[in-house]
């Protein structure tokens, strides 16, 4: 990393121009090519997929998107001449628009009568476009909406529903991303205190997400990419892009504050935190690739899009960021920090404040902290017992939207099941008897066969219950398991509702294999990184706890409806079937980032001291602030996607925000360190035979330049606490280790809890000197053996202690 980082730093203008050229070039190419996103719910060996294949073969022309215009009159019926005179001209005008294949209304033909409700107050017309919804220009869709709604008048309500209509009621593109970036900017400014430093993570995220989004858009022309992929790509890309840059910039600023030259500080930051970012990005991609285990084609495009955006964000953080840091130099610090550095000289690295006090509290009361954290997580996880997978539809939209109003009008006029008809596709004969049996089935409102073609007949079945109702799921099972076998015909149940049910069923069956895969991969990675069996086992358990709690929050909000009105997210319903796989992948990847960042510092302290309590305390004190800042940024970015206008995106945003918040603020800050205190030295146990066979992986090597303050060829340490006579810890006490001849071997400052650690080159007799401000000087001879020496120092006010 060193040579590459120096090249990027010294050729910063070239690097910046290359990235700007890549962003502009990809953006121009993507704009010229357009979008070709495709939602492919292909579920091999499922009944709905067989029904779809038969329909595609017999009715290949039904390719365009079909939307609905619905109207309701308050007085009289929709057959009244005054109503017809207002609606029919609008329908005729819509039919003449370029891009509209045809309009089927209730006022023409024998079939039209079926498009009027029994009480005559509600009717609908079907608008068939010549392309799928995602490929239609928005101005065409807006013309259809405006033309239909121009027919409104007092006593006549006109609404529109369908996938195409959804596109024109979405918030402005990029609104969610912009709100997330602004919220992250506030957190970064509070963390850094510098406007220029705040801009760095934002800039890296913009370049990473921008190039990723444009690349995904271009890839949509060569492979099946669902329309959810770009939304999730931007959501994850913003989160990881800002977080990864935050880790590196924090380490770089720390190096400058400790007196390093800006170029050397960049090299150290990339050679430490940069390596951790590469490892973290790799784990996120591995977790995303775990979705391929489910063998669900719909998720393949999601994997491609999100993984590509994460990779580009990592590349931006390790190439563009060093270049931008080169432009800023020492201005990456705030003015106050630069003035203090010039006046007081380099700072000593230390942990103090709230983080250090919390770390001490966890060490003193690990059982209490662990118990409280477990109770909180368990309570939040309880709703997951009611988890029901399905699919959100326009019945879950906000009540103010025309799609929700059209959905409710159709349900009012034609029954709740009208918005999700089932299609029983029959190959061969026996249709008449089957239709009669279906009509007599409990839960069926009406059923009728369409004209056959090429030996295939489609029976339209309207359930009595809504598409998201469990009773509709039960009806599908009844048709498949009882009605069709008893009729002795070759038939399959299809339609959107049946497809979503099968998707949920397949996802539920394959989910355990997926969970085992990503948990197993995480266990192996952490075992190699930290040379321990207990640390990765603890991480695996914590990941499962975090998953259960975050899904509990998701069920309470979206399935039970708690807080939906506050968030403006419409009506409650089942959890999207694809969400568990996506959320578990991302939760695994992101939690691995925090786990590595936290435990790597603990592991470093353990290697030096072999004292578990100190390792856990120091690791938590020195990393919790950065982890919490990174998590807060993620939460802001994810919650902003509630504004995306996409129910699936909003659901993913809330779920991931809950998962990250619980993982960082409860698990990594409280439960993990408390558990590690309780487990003691067993945290770091690894059988000797296994240790010899495992490869060595340095997640974050020691910083360059530490040799200046460490004894050469150090084989042991002296560590302990500096306290007053009353037992109070002494912070910022200068602790110096000297040889018999008076040569300084190591020099450190005590932490907020009074702890210190100095390196010793080998067994022997040394001089330990402690200077603590008004407490004076205390010096003692210490004799170090083969292992670490624990030596506490007590200082008194105005004390001066001579060494004999």
What does this structure look like?
By secondary structure, the protein is an alpha+beta fold. 56% of the residues lie in helices and 13% in strands. The protein is built from 24 helices and 19 strands. Strands 13-12-15-16-19 form a five-stranded mixed sheet, with no helix packed on it. The protein has a four-stranded antiparallel sheet with strand order 2-3-1-4, sandwiched between helices. Strand 12 and strand 13 (744-749) form a beta hairpin. Helix 14 (366-381) packs parallel to helix 19, helix 18 (496-530) runs antiparallel to helix 19 and helix 18 runs parallel beside helix 21 (579-609). The radius of gyration is 32 Å and the shape is elongated. Mean pLDDT is 83; it is low at 702-714 and 799-804. This is MMPL family transporter. It is a multi-pass membrane protein.
